[in-house]
Amino acid sequence: MSRIRTARTVATLLAGGVLAAAVLTAGQPAASDVAIPVADVAPTTEMTNVPLTGSAGEPRPGTTYGKAEREIRVERNTTGTFRAVSLSWEKGVRLDHGAHATVRFHRNGEWTAWQDIPLGGDQDSGEAKRTGSGVFFSDTADGAQLRLTTEKGELPRNLRLSLINPDKKPEASGSKGTQRLTMKPAAAVGTAGASAADRLEPVVHTRADWGADESKADPGLKGMDTVRAMVVHHTVNGNAYRPEDVPSLMRAIYTDKIENEGYGDFPYHFVVDRFGGIWEGRRGSIAASPSASPKAILGGHAAGYNTGTLGVATLGNFEPTEEGSAKPEPDMLNGVRDILAWKGAQYQLDPKGKAVLDFAGQKPKTVDVVSGHRDVYATLCPGEDLYALLPALRQQVADRMAQAQETAGIAPAEPRARR
C-alpha cells in the first residue's frame, strides 16, 4: 500500500462480530521529533480518536455486519504520525470472553506482522469514566489496521480507536511542555538518612523527568491516611521498548488514561521499566509518607480497593502468549523490589504478612501485603509470568528491609495484618 499525504481511516466489520479498521496518516517525523531521556524541551502528546461504534454498539454509519466474504468500509480523517494505539469503550460494558483484537502498523511503506492487543482493562474503576485496553506501543508509524472479533458478534458501545503521538515537538513559543528531562544521579538519594526508609530510598525519576503535562491532571492531591498493602500490576503495552522510549511510553499512558478513560491522573503511584528504572506515576507519590501531608496518595489502580493500597506497575506485558512466556527481566524485578522495600519501610509494612482492605458495601478483604492486581480484582494482571514470581519477590523485599533495619539499629517488625 502506498503512503498517502491525506490521512484516512478504513473500518471493516465482518460476519461474526469482526471489526477491522485501517488508519493511514501523514509521513514519518524527523529524528529530532523523538523524545530521549534528556532533552531541552519536553514533547507534547497528541491523540486522534477514531469512532468505531455508536451508542448502541452499532457500527458507525457506512459500517455494518456482513456475510462471509463481504466487507463494508468507512473512511475517517485523521492527522499526524503516532507511536501507540489504544481501544476504549463505554464503562460498564464488558467484552465477552472470546473477544480478540489484533493490530499491525504501517511504516516505511510496509505493514508489520499482526500483533495481539490485550483487552483486560480495569472495567470497574471508580475513578475512570470509560473502559480501555491500555496503550499498545510501537515505533513511529503512519498507519494502523485493527481487527476486533467478538465471540457473540456483539461490539461494545461507543468503541473508539485512539492514535497517540507522545513525541510531538512543541511550538517554539508559548509551549506548556518546557520541563527539562533530567535524570537523578544514583548518589543523590538513599544514603543520607539514618532510618531504614532513608537508607532504602532508590533513584526515582520524577514526573518532570518523563515530561508530564501537569495541566492534564486534576488539581491538588487526593490523600488517604495510610498504606496497608502494595499491589503489583503490568501495563500490557509490550516489552520490546528501548531506554529512550520510556518517557514516551509514560506520556502515552498518561494521556490515554486521562483523556480517553477519564482518570484524574496517572492511575499507578510508580512504574518500573524493564531496565530497572523507577518512575513517579501519580502526582505526590514520592513525597507522601506518614510524616508528610498528605500521608499517602489515593491511586486509581485497584477498582474498589484503591483506598489503603499503593500501586506499582511494571512497564510491559507478562501474560504468556502463543509465542511463549514473557518473564520480567532481573533488572525490572530489582526495581520493583527496591520501590516496594522503600515504601514498605515508610509505612512499616511486613511484606510477607497480610492486610485487611475495605470496599464500600462489601465485606473486608484479607490479602497479602504484596499482592497482584488479580488478588483484588477479576483480571489477568499482572500477568501469569510475573504473578508466579510474587512469593520470591516478597522474600526479597523482606530481606532488603530487614538488612536496612539492622543497619539502622531497628529490629524487624513482627508479622501482622494491617488495617
TrEMBL record:
EC number(s) on file: 3.5.1.28
Domain Peptidoglycan recognition protein family: 202-362
Signal peptide range in chain numbering: 1-20
Entries under Gene3D superfamilies matching the protein: Peptidoglycan recognition protein-like
UniProt KW keywords: Hydrolase, Signal
Entries under SUPFAM superfamilies matching the protein: N-acetylmuramoyl-L-alanine amidase-like (SSF55846)
UniProt key word Methyltransferase: no
Keyword Signal included in the entry's annotation: yes
Pfam families associated with the record: Amidase_2
Single GO MF descriptor: N-acetylmuramoyl-L-alanine amidase activity
Family: Belongs to the N-acetylmuramoyl-L-alanine amidase 2 family.
Protein name per its UniProtKB record: N-acetylmuramoyl-L-alanine amidase
Lineage of the organism: Bacteria, Bacillati, Actinomycetota, Actinomycetes, Kitasatosporales
